[in-house]
Amino acid sequence: MSNLLTASIGKKLLMSVSGLFLILFLFVHLILNSFLLLDGAMGYQTGQMFNAGAHFMATNPFIKVMEPMLALGFIVHILYSLILTFQNMKARGPQRYASGNKTTGVEWASQNMLVLGIVIFSFLIVHMFDFFMRMRGYIAWTPGEAEFPFFGSIAKGEDAYTLVNATFKNLTIVIIYIIGSVALAFHLAHGFWSSFQTIGWNNTTWMPRLRCASNIVAIILGGGFTVIALAQYLFF
Question: Which of 66, 85, 202, 221 is deepest in the core (most CB within 10 A)?
Fold first, then answer.
């Protein structure tokens, strides 16, 4: 185990596996956020579907167990990404490039993964302060109470929709979310297939498919979060 944590391939494997785990979380997060659009499309201006989804996520025991694992996943991915990046820069010595613009035959996203990672991490901090810290009570917030359908009955819980809707009425916040979502899309366009390559799916049959899948994943996640932020600002 110690060799796995210290060897270069072991570090790449941990970074890749944690990255794929985080992608699964992003899809779950996007599904929940898509309720914001469904609420509007179905005429639920009070955000009933989103409030029900947020209530489920906040009260489900499985989700509570997964939250520490999610935090660990972020820490591992960020930590090993930084370690590998700086080790690679040190190994290149005077030949290393700052932005990768002088390197031919390499994807732009691959050349700028560190910069994209910094943008995404900055966006994550903003997102935590905007929503998670408030919904968990770490930052003062008076949520109010909402009623919503919940597995065949009417439940009461925090009015998370009002917080999200009010936050996305701020154009500056919306622009920050768009920048973060675009950076995420570029990050995933390289990171998704690269993770499978590290795991061992690097043959001529699978790599073209994985590269295509990477672009689809990037468009769905990056585009989805962008559309939701814009729709909240413009229409709801």
Answer: 221
Name the residue with tokens 């960020």.
Answer: 78
Spatial distance between the Cα atoms of 179 and 40, rounded to a whole number of angstroms: 24
Instruction: Give the count of beta carbons closer than 10 Å to the beta carbon of residue 52.
Output: 23
H/E element holding 156? strand 153-158
Q: Is pLDDT larger for residue 136 or for residue 180?
A: 180
Q: Tokens 């936050």 map to which residue?
A: 167
Q: Quote the pTM value.
A: 0.86
Is residue 217 within 8 Å of 184, Cβ to Cβ?
no
User: In the prediction, which pLDDT does 94 show?
Assistant: 54
CB atoms closer than 10 angstroms to residue 224: 20
Region of residue 39 (left: phi > 0; alpha: psi -120 to 50; beta: else): alpha
- Calculate the dihedral angle through the C-alpha atoms of 112, 118, 120, 123, rounding to the nearest 10 degrees: -150
CATH value of 2-235 in 2.60.120, 1.20.1300, 1.10.3470, 1.20.120: 1.20.1300
Mean pLDDT of 95-109: 56
Res 187 pLDDT > 90: yes
166-169: which pairs have CB atoms within 8 A and are 24 or more residues apart?
A: 167/130, 167/131, 168/229, 168/232, 168/233, 169/232, 169/233
C-alpha 212, offset from chain centre: 20
Confidence of residue 192 (pLDDT cuts 50, 70, 90): very high
Distance of CA 98 to the CA centre of its chain: 25
Helix (H) or strand (E) holding 148: strand 145-150
